[in-house]
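User: Second chain of the day. Same drill as before.
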Amino acid sequence: MTLNHTASPEVPALSSDVLTLSTDIDSEMMSYQQSGNDLVMPETLEINANLRYVSGSVSSSNQGTFSPRTHVLIAFITSANRNGNVLFIGEN
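Assistant: Same format as last time:
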């Protein structure tokens, strides 16, 4: 997994098997990506995530790739044919 982020001074924190990602302004992002030879797509893809929303806000002013901005985004895209799916998770 590769960390991609523009957050400053925030950094990911791993403690007791809990990964915490946080940013404090709309222009920042923090994510992990797995691609290339590190990733082999199985015939049936299953993505599991156990998440807890602590705090935050949603902004429509950050008109990036995905808009409006949400708290959590889980996505997968196959490079061979560019098929995939995106799951946005917000406060409610």
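The chain has a mean pLDDT of 75.

User: Great, on to the next one.
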